[in-house]
User: Fold this.
Amino acid sequence: MAIFHEEEFENEIPLGQVLRLPCKFIQGKSNVAAKQIEAIAEQLSKTDKNILPIVVKLLEEDNYQSVFNTQILDGARLAKKDFVWCIIVDEPMLEQIQIEAGLVITPPTVATNIVVASEQEIQEALERIKAQQPSFKKINPLETAKKIIEYRKIKKPKNLTFLTTLKCGIGKAKISEISDFLTVA
Assistant:
């Protein structure tokens, strides 16, 4: 390994670009089922390259850690490939990848106050919940927002449990999941 100043070397690393790296320089093992790894290896043997890049972080010169799409690295190793296509990322880029891939659920910075919010604002908050929480797929954001507005005309909500009485698909178990998105404060 060459002697180098860490700062100089890091500046030379092309973050976010697709590069071809030797498999032997990449650490990591996925927890994907063996059958799937075998299928990936078979495909890589046919095509001689991976199309979906492996996302790696630089540990030191010629030493990387696979942080995303590691199953492709496992498949390449099984197929006895010497090189794979990779994208080198830093921590902020990895966070963005995880958010874009739907692996990180990001609640809004401020929860929507359903006591004062408009029907449109409540609907938008419910749409965010539906998009990010699989258990809310059957919720109809427009109908639920209308029911919240109607309830508000009759009675001021004291907490989110009133949602369980609206027959909108939100039961007691879902109240804790929506508290990052909706509030009555």
